[in-house]
Design a protein that fits this description.
6-stranded mixed sheet; about 260 residues; 6-stranded antiparallel sheet; 12 strands; binds calcium ion; alpha+beta; 7 helices
């Protein structure tokens, strides 16, 4: 079977002092985490999250249950670190991603999300967001008080209502579906969608066949457009003819 092709890129941007985003590119798990908290705690939180995810999911058959355990372990790891290092208490992170899991013996994608980083699917010339942000403004969009376009420029657009590390336990949103040959996924932190419109992101994904070049271009354009936040992108391509990818070609490893 043919492996998925993956590209990943991350940049501090123009304004922020540090890059508090982290990402994971492992054999069958891909994730983006966007940390928050003072005293450089945000980057610790996002790194702990992807490290816990990598550890729990390594070398075992992945199922929804394993993924949920991994998200829970990530939450515990951040809270434990916050107790050991009070200066980082209260730190948190988003965590979103994509894993190839087994459902009754057949491979399925599982998309998971906590917070306002996002997973999109690019298929047949169309870009569709799969995740729902856990944010103040998404709630306003849900109730019809804001349009999607207004939401992206809203002053509360960075206020998340669910995160890892901030509560005793956390439940990710989860979506499970079978792979389709030729589909492409985009995982990103909100630094991308803050700077680039949905249409521009779709145009880049349609123009750049190579996933690493697509990731590099998206990040470069977001920085060029203002770079007001850290920006992180992971692009995962399902091979055109193999419906059942059994793992990934890892370009750079985890960060
Ligand atoms: Ca961010």
């Amino acid at each position: 079977m043919t492996a998925a092709r993956v590209g990943a890129a991350s940049d501090r941007g123009v304004v922020r002092q540090a890059n508090e985003d982290s990402y994971l590119v492992a054999e069958a798990v891909f994730a983006v985490a966007d940390g928050m908290g003072g005293h450089a705690a945000g980057d610790v939180a996002s790194e702990l999250a992807v490290a816990a995810l990598a550890e729990v999911t390594a070398d075992r058959e992945l199922t929804e249950e394993v993924l949920r355990k991994a998200v829970s372990a990530a939450n515990d790891a951040i809270r434990l670190d916050g107790r050991k290092h009070p200066i980082r208490a209260g730190m948190g992170t988003t965590l979103t991603g994509l894993a190839l899991v087994s459902v009754a013996g057949s491979p399925h994608w599982l998309v998971f999300n906590v917070g306002d980083s996002r997973v999109y699917r690019w298929w047949d010339g169309e870009l569709t967001r799969l995740t729902v942000d856990h944010s103040e403004v998404e709630a306003l969009v849900g109730s019809g008080e804001l349009t999607l376009d207004e939401a992206s420029r809203h002053p509360l657009s960075n206020v998340v209502t669910r995160a890892l590390g901030t509560h005793l336990s956390v439940e990710p949103d989860v979506w499970v579906f079978p792979p389709t040959p030729g589909e492409r996924f985009l995982l990103c932190s909100d630094g991308l969608t803050l700077e680039l419109t949905h249409e521009r992101i779709a145009a880049v994904l349609g123009a750049e066949d190579d996933p690493q070049r697509a990731a590099d271009t998206l990040v470069a354009e977001a920085v060029e457009a203002g770079g007001r936040d850290n920006v992180t992108v992971v692009v995962v391509d399902v091979p055109p003819s193999a419906a059942e990818p059994d793992g990934a070609t890892v370009p750079r490893g985890e960060r």
